Amino acid sequence: MSAPLLVVDEVSKSFAEIHALHEVSLTIHQGDIVGLVGSNGAGKTTLLRLLSGVYRPSSGSVHLGDGKSISTARHAIGVVPENTGLYSRLTAWENIRYHARMQGIDDDEAWKRTLYFSRYLGMEDSLQRHTKGFSRGMRQKTALLRALAHAPKVLLLDEPTAGLDVTSARTVRELVKQLGEEGGTVIYSTHQLAEAERVCNRIIIIHNGEVRADGTPQELLNITGQPNLEEAYVALTSDVARERMEDSKPLKGVAKWWRSFFTPRLPKGVDEDE
Q1: Rounded (5°) CA angle 126-157-246
Q2: Domain around 219
Q3: pLDDT digits (tens, 9 = 90+) for 226-236
Q4: How confident is residue 247, by pLDDT bands cut at 50, 70 and 90?
Q5: Over 80: is that where the pLDDT of 29 sits?
Q6: In CATH, what number is assigned to the domain containing residue 135?
């Protein structure tokens, strides 16, 4: 087995009284295509944010294989969030180039990588188009190219095919498979077990903030004694899933004013994804 690329060591994460993750330990190696599977509210996105350095653990540590804290080595991680966060007034290439420059990557090198992967995604002819008129699938593909432009060691994908049409979803899955065949490392968060089985060589099931199983699809079947992965998943997550916490209370008085003061209004015609 290759040396570890990314290590999660007994990590817990809490938000006040909400315990999002509890003592999670994982080791990610080069070439792993990991399906992070769980229901809404299981802790998948919290874990991805810890892996990308956006969150810091309440306890435990997240670090690269060489011991460097992930918070000081974010250049090693490529992230495709569920909300792509593209600047709609920029072209696809300008979005990608802007991100690559922030990572210290030369424009020529970023363009070579972008062009290489854009051919897999069918985006080569759209790189000079403004993203404002892009479909969700095209925005998702642009976000993938942006995440790959600086040659990250690990690619984190948060529900990468959610809301995509069949063709776009298939294209994204094929790119992930291609990355795996080329020795890339991907953590693929999804609540679709069948999708994880189709794409990934390793599946981690997370439920109520805990890792319930970690192994190949066949190992998960062996652990549970079930005939298929759906039955294995049900057996491993039979306790009631916690509700997803949402900040649904309306703001009042000073709190409402304070929020509006620090939340700028979007100009007319600006896409919300910008």
Answers
A1: 115
A2: 4-262
A3: 999 999 999 99
A4: very low
A5: yes
A6: 3.40.50.300
